[in-house]
Amino acid sequence: MKARLAILISGRGSNMRAIVEACQEGILTPLAEAVIVLCNKPGAAGLEVARQAGVPAVVVPSKGKSREAFEQQLLATLQPLRIDLVVLAGFMRVLTPLFVHAYPQRIINIHPADTRAYQGAHAYTWAHENKLTTTWITVHRVDDGVDTGEVLGRAEVDLRGAVDLEEIQRRGLEVEHRLYPEVLRQLLSGGRMTRATALATESLRTR
Ligand code: GRF
Measured from the CA of 137, which atom of ligand 1 is nearest? Predict the structure, then answer.
């Protein structure tokens, strides 16, 4: 049986696209199906990307709602769909224990930095401002903290010679789009991921 994925986005949706493509005709095809894309921002570009790919895309606006009311609405939308894994892909809301505990160990996120070094938004700006010559992309489980959950995979991004923030983001996203489907593949094919498989994904490099 394929794992049923819900993908949560807030914007462009390029990671969502990479995961949907991997489900439809890639490394996740035998393992997973993208059942729904949920977005908290009306008009986000990713909504159209999902629909073009044939995945139902639903807006649950977060603006003007309490965290609890928003998350109750998310849960009510997901509950009838029998979702196995909630995949955060550029979802810019911090989830509270109300939602996190509804899918224990089953919410995954991608963070464009080493979570030990930097947590929260604007990680590529952080890499740029600190003139890093290398940064890391991290896929991790979501727990009650911000970017503090168990690391499932990491991949390095070579930033040497990157001239500006756009170049850093371009190189980073290229790695993100390969790492996220690969970590999901390992997670779904091997049951619980071991430290060894998590480390194996570190070999995914830009160059
Ligand atoms: C990515 O850099 C992701 O790591 C971060 O937000 C960005 C989302 O980009 N959490 P996209 O919407 O997947 O294109």
Answer: 4
Length of the chain equals: 207
Distance CA 205, CA 160 (A): 13
The full DSSP string for 130-182 is TT-SEEEEEEEE--SSSS-SPEEEEEEEE-TT--SHHHHHHHHHHHHHHHHHH
pLDDT of 193: 43
Q: How many whole angstroms from 136 Cα to the centroid of ligand 1?
A: 14
Bridge partner list, 7? 37, 87
Alpha carbon distance 57, 50 (integer Å): 6
Instruction: Return the ligand 1 atom nearest residue 112 CA.
Output: 4
122 part of the active site: no
- pLDDT (0 to 100) of residue 200: 46
Residue carrying the six token digits 């996203």: 173
Beginning with the edge strand found earlier in the chain, give each strand of the sheet holding 32-39 in spatial order: 57-59, 32-39, 3-9, 85-88, 107-111, 134-141, 151-158
DSSP assignment letter at 115: T
Q: Whole-prediction pTM value?
A: 0.93
Residue 121 in contact with residue 88, Cβ under 8 Å? no
110 lines ligand 1 (CB under 6 A): yes
Residue 123 Cβ inside 6 Å of ligand 1? The answer reads: no
CA dihedral 126, 131, 137, 138 (to 10 degrees): -60
